[in-house]
Design a protein that fits this description.
The chain is an alpha/beta fold. 22% of the residues lie in helices and 28% in strands. Strands 1, 4, 5, 6, 8, 9, 10, 11 and 12 form a nine-stranded mixed sheet that branches. Strands 17, 18, 20, 21, 23, 25, 27, 28 and 29 form a nine-stranded mixed sheet that branches. The protein is globular, with a radius of gyration of 23 Å. It is an enzyme of class 2 (transferase).
Length: 420
């Protein structure tokens, strides 16, 4: 690995986060908010990981393109990411689809979401663009990727995960030569090409791209003029460069940020109820695969002012307690029992209730004697007294959104329909 330069390239880069997607596989969790705005890890939102990576990497110019049901996301960024100062050559731009190019045109694809804001990008005069997806959970130092991009002379450098070859069938896969130059880009292949030095593994796209700014702008303008283009990086921009220019793969393991407690590179697309539940519950492990307590690479977010969590009552069958759990501030565990659960800010769990494998979003109220196992409970839900979830699969599936493995998503409209 090359040594970092004395003058970081990140100082002359802009991070552009694509945060307009709904994330329909999260079902009702994204009925009111875009996927990047979905809560994660007790106090954060999913988008905080991409934004924190950019900030911690030394990037001080950030733009976020929003579109689908963006109010929750915009409000979060206004509250939690408002500390950038223009007088320090810093900027943080929220870029909703605002029909700036055409009076009838919203963002048509990921490439169009950048193209429509070319004038803003040009005003900053940055040398490099780091294009990021706003809906993945990981820790990464983009400076290493920027340096590989410059040293290799690439037109585009693409962040890639090393995944077992036959697990890559759901990804865009990079077919590379021995120097990691991309010779073909295959979308969701039935037989993914292996890596030359690791034939049992494939390189899957992370949706992270580094360009020289001028090259990117030229590529976007060419693509915008093509009536047959779908205006998408993965479908149009990247395949064109692979065929007509120089595209290079950057392996995530080279820039993944790990504390002493993290042994493997951690990256998750929490795009399904199952994956979302699992990634949150993973944080309750004694040594989680993702270390969110690493102060050298903090996950920045809206620092909500809240009182400490409180656990009350100490009777034999009415004891406020939690084991193998993560509990955020302003939670009151009043005679309830938690095991392997993650509670966001402001949850109230009342007497004799039991929660196991529960991911509970902010401001939820759990009624007395409720028994909840393997659930995701949406923001602000009021759980009725005595509700039992996780014991009768057929009943759960009739009442709630239940996955094949038995994870139940609970929202307030679902509760309101119950005949209790």
């Amino acid at each position: 690995m090359v040594e970092k330069r004395i003058q970081p390239l990140a100082r002359d880069a802009m991070a552009y986060v694509l945060a307009g997607g709904r994330g329909s596989r999260l079902k009702e969790l994204t009925d009111r908010r875009a996927k990047p705005a979905v809560y994660f890890g007790g106090k954060s939102r999913i988008i905080d990981f991409a934004l924190s990576n950019a900030l911690n990497s030394g990037i001080r110019r950030i733009g976020v393109a929003t579109q689908y049901k963006a109010h929750s996301l915009i409000r979060h960024m206004q509250r939690g990411w408002n500390f950038f100062r223009p007088e320090r050559n810093e900027s943080f731009d929220i870029l909703p689809a605002s029909q700036r190019v055409s009076e009838t045109q919203w963002y048509e694809g990921t490439a169009d979401a950048v193209y429509q804001n070319i004038d803003i990008i040009e005003d900053y005069g940055v040398e490099y663009m780091v294009i990021l997806a706003g809906d993945h959970v990981y820790k990464m130092d983009y400076e290493w990727m920027l340096q590989q991009h410059v040293d290799s002379g690439a037109d585009v450098t693409i962040g890639c995960l090393e995944v077992p070859r036959m697990e890559a069938v759901g990804f865009g896969v990079m077919h590379v030569d021995k120097a990691d130059r991309i010779i073909d880009f295959v979308e969701k292949p039935a037989n993914p090409p292996g890596i030359p030095d690791k034939p049992d593994f494939a390189l899957a796209s992370m949706g992270i791209y580094v360009f020289h700014t001028k090259f990117l702008i030229d590529a976007l303008r060419r693509d915008a003029a093509d009536p047959n283009s779908s205006k998408d990086f993965g479908k149009d921009i990247i395949p064109y460069i692979v065929k007509n220019g120089k595209a290079v793969a950057h392996r995530f393991g080279q820039s993944c940020v790990r504390s002493d407690f993290e042994h493997e590179p951690y990256w998750r697309d929490v795009g399904t109820i199952e994956a979302y539940w699992q990634a949150n519950i993973d944080l309750t492990a004694i040594v989680p695969e993702l270390d969110i307590y690493d102060k050298s690479w903090p996950v920045w977010t809206y620092a909500e002012i809240s009182p400490p969590a409180k656990f009350v009552h100490d009777d034999e069958d009415r004891r406020g307690s939690a084991t193998s759990s993560v509990v955020a501030g302003d939670c009151i565990i009043s005679g309830a029992t938690l095991h392997k659960s993650l509670l966001f800010t402001g949850v109230r769990a009342n007497s004799y209730s039991k929660l196991e494998g529960a991911v509970v979003l902010p401001s939820v109220k759990v009624g007395r004697r409720a028994q909840l196992k393997n659930v995701v409970i949406d923001h602000g839900v009021v759980i009725p007294e005595g509700l039992v979830v996780g014991e009768d699969p057929e009943l759960d599936a009739k009442r709630f959104r239940r996955t094949e493995s038995g994870i139940c998503l609970i929202t307030q409209p679902m509760i309101d329909k119950l005949d209790l």
